[in-house]
Every structure is written in C-alpha cells, then in structure tokens.
Amino acid sequence: MKIAVEGCAHGELEKIYDLVESIQNQEGYQIDLLICCGDFQSTRNLEDLQCMAVPKKHLDICTFYKYYSGEKIAPVLTLFIGGNHEASNYLQELPYGGWVAPNIYYLGYAGVVNINGIRIGGISGIYKGHDYLKGRYEFSPYNETTKRSVYHIRQIDVFRLKQLTPKVDILLSHDWPRGVTNYGNKNQLIRFKPAFREEVEENKLGSPPCEDLLMNLKPPYWFSAHLHCKFSALIPHESGEITRFLALDKCLPKRRFLQVLDLETKDESGKLELNYDLEWLTILHLTNHLISIRGSNGYMPGEGGSERFNFTPTEDEKKVVLERFCNDLRIPQNFTRIAEPYNPAAGIGLDFVDQPKAYINPQTTDFCDKLNIDDPLRLAMLMTGHTLITSTYVDQGPLNVSINSDKNHGELVLDDDSSSNGDDLTEEVPLCTRAPLASVLPKPKWRHDSSTDASTLDDSSLSTSNRSVLSLPTPQKQDSNLSDNFTIDELNLSSPKISVDTKTGGTQPVDGNKVDCTEEKPPMKKFKRRNEAIYAKEDSD
Question: Secondary structure of the chain: what % helix, strand, coil (to 5)?
Fold first, then answer.
C-alpha cells in the first residue's frame, strides 16, 4: 500500500492533492492513502474560522470548504488528526472520529482504524500540563482561554490508547514524543532550528504523554508535525523492536512536508476498506464511565484500588461489541453537511460573523447509540444547562456523492444529477435494528468522576522541493545493523527524489431501556488521588 504522509496541512488541500497527483504521474503508481498529522484546518465557513486560535491577521479560509461543499472531491482517501490550529468547534462534533467531508476522515480525540489489515492510531491536539488532567468541558462559543484549551490532549485519551494490544502499525501525533531527538541528528535539528537548543538539551522538547505511549506501544512507525521541520529518528526498544519516527514540515514551497512510503498489507484483495478497530471500539465501550466534563483535575484508576484499571478487552467483551455492529466493522459512508459552506461570492467578511453555537453531529449520535456510549459534547452541554442544538441547515450540495457497491468499498462516484441532495452517502449493507435517534438527550450512560455537580463549573471557562518517495522495510526484531534498513537522517532516501513546484500547485437507546429525561443527575464518583504522582507531568508553556 502506497501511503503519503503530510506534516501540517494548514488548510492547503488543493496544493496537497495537486502534489499527490504529480507524484502519481511522475512515478507511475497510485497513492492509496493520505495521512495528515494535524493543523488540518477543516474550516467550513467564516464562523468556523473564528474558532481557530490564531491571530486575526493569519485567519484564512483556505480550500477545505470546497471539499466540504462538494465543489471538489478528495481524490485519495484522507485520514487526519487534529493539531493546535483547527476549527475546534467542528472537530468537537466528532469526538470519536467521523467524515468531515466525503473521503476525508478524522480520527477523533484519539482513535484507531483498520485499513486492509494495517492498524492506524492517532491522538489529536498538543500537550499542556495544566489541562492534561481535566475533562472535556469546553464547547463553542469559546473565550480566549477555552479556544486554546479545547485542543489540549487529555489523560483519558492516552489511558485508552495504552490499553491496546497488539500494537498498532502506525501512530500519529501532532507534537513530537519527548526524547525522540536523542535518536536522530539533533545537531542538524538545532542548526536548522536554533530556538530548540535549550529544550533539546534539557529534554523538554515534545510531549511526555506521547513519549509514554511510544515506550508502551512500540509502534513500527510514528509520524508527527507541529514544529515545522523534517526530522527522522530510529528508536530501539529493549524488546528488540524498532520505531521509525518521522516529523514533516508544513505545506509551503521548498519545504519538506510530504513523503511516500510503501507498506505491505495483510489484505491482498485489492479493495481499499476503512474499518473500525474492534479492540478500540471495545475499549471505548469499557471506559465510557471514565469520561469527565469537569474543568478541574481528575485521575484514571490504577493499581492499588478496588476497581478495574486494566481495560484491555477480553475475547468475550469484543464479541459483545462486534454483535452490536452486526459483525460489520466497515465505517459507514454517513457524512452529513450540517453547516452552510463558505460562499466567496457572498462578500461577507470576518468582522460580520461570530463564533457559532455548538451543534450535535448525527454521525456521533449514530455511533454512540450503536456502541452505547456518551458524546462528551452532549454531556458538557447538558451538565451546564445549555440547550442541545440540532442544525436546521438544509443541504443544497451541488454534487450527489454515493458509494458504488459494485466496486471497491469506499470508492466515490459522482453522479451527473447536480440537483440531487449531497447527503445521499448511502450503501446497501445489512443494518442492525435499533431505536431511532433521540430528538432529546438520552440519559447519560456514564458515572461521573467527581462529587462536584455542574453548578460548580466556572462559566467563564465555557463562555517540498525535496520530497522523497521511499520504501520502508517492515521492522525486524534483533536487527543487528539498523542503518542498513533505515538511515536516521533521511529515512533511507534511496529512491528517486521528486521536485515539484507547489506554487502551481428518540426515546429509547440501543439496549432498549426507556429514557427518563427528568431523572436526577447521574451519580457522581470521585477517584482517590492515589495516582496523582503518575500524572504530575511538568507543564509545557
């Protein structure tokens, strides 16, 4: 499988897809998957743009809206995680992942998917110590503080990823795992980025939670972005396994922001299918009670307590979840436009729009109903007395995008009928019989991790000229000569280099239990501070 890895996209989808096409034409092969490592900037309109934490002079609608509206269709299946420059309100609608546009899939706060036997996991956002232990309490409209805290990673996402076994093949993060500079050419890095010297020498550059994940999961490949430079490293583990780390630059001319690798797939059928990962689904189901929407610190369970702390699922637990999905783990093509796309012809400027209110996304509602878990955004709004809002936008998409069931699953087909509704993203597959989606909030399925109720929440906090194509070998244990397979500085750049001019370039949940919307608040649970030392990471400013 040919996989193109992109650093920071910064909304420049047209340029990235043009480059992908150029590589395909020059090299004579098809790129199967594009992975973007954050700062994707899925801004649908000017309201979304107001939710990005950047100086006003840098706000730019860029080109994602064209793919959201249906004016253009992503030519290659695209998978991405969030960074620190995002339309956070849109991504909050999809905490467990989902389609942000046809053929463009977001992994969520944290997520794992399976593509033709390759497990790809990722964690969105960046690390800040002062927010790491908090719950997901933010939602739009944001104030200047929550506009930033909303994209800070949280302990529950790292905790969930650490339950995975066996390891994933590829892990994605926006910021780098701390310590990776010790395994690459850090002198060259410092020459290129002198401002990094102090952090590198004091081992403060990067994310401590991502370092924890790296050392626990030992993935064969780890890709990052964020620091706007290319850096590669080879991290050996005591078990003899190897992690090949690569960070890439942002999408600008003469910057090294895209690289192609060739991975052997376990599925040789030739059909490209994006599937849920059963183990990850089961972990989400088992840890639903750990969700927090508090703006203060909480802790995950650990050894020494009376409650379960290991949520690596058993075969029986996975079987139960698989039955909930009717033994079909294919990710449905259920993208729905719930916001009006940007219209350049309207002539409306940023000064005339405000941040949007938070909306509930039907993709997430459907997923949560099926898995019997909670939507953190719904919980946060419920517990603070906010009204749940469902979009009343009537989609008038110019294209009818559907799935051709006779061809490869997931192949996009454009119909000539431009008057058709662009929400018609359906495929005839067996469906589980379940209750209709509730028009009001279902009773939360969680138990809260605090004795503090919603009234104590702080309302103020809620208000490449040198782009390379390479073939990376599958890591082998006890590799006695690492440099033969993986050059630390250039990731085995033995294949031809490519130079491209980027300037051209309802009322019942799934389990059938009746919902009583007038029921009292869910029981509150307070975790002991027994594991505080584990999570007392040094803050990163």
Answer: 25, 15, 60
pTM: 0.78
Summarised one tens digit per residue, pLDDT across range 23-82 is 999 999 999 999 999 999 999 999 999 999 999 888 999 999 999 999 999 999 999 999
- Residue of 146, 75, 91 lying closest to 123 (CA atoms): 91
CA 310 to the chain's CA centroid: 24
Query: How far, in Å, CA of 226 to CA of 246, rounded?
Result: 12
Listed in sequence order, the DSSP H helices in 313-425 are: 315-324, 362-371, 376-383
Inside any domain, residue 540: no
3-state SS class at 68: helix
- Cα distance between residue 512 and residue 534, in whole Å: 39
Supply the range of the domain harboring residue 110.
2-535
For residue 541, is it within any domain?
no
In a domain, 330, yes or no: yes
Can you give the CATH number for the domain in which 92 is found? 3.60.21.10
Q: What is the mean pLDDT of residues 469-489?
A: 36
For residue 182, give the nearest of 222, 231, 228 by alpha carbon: 231
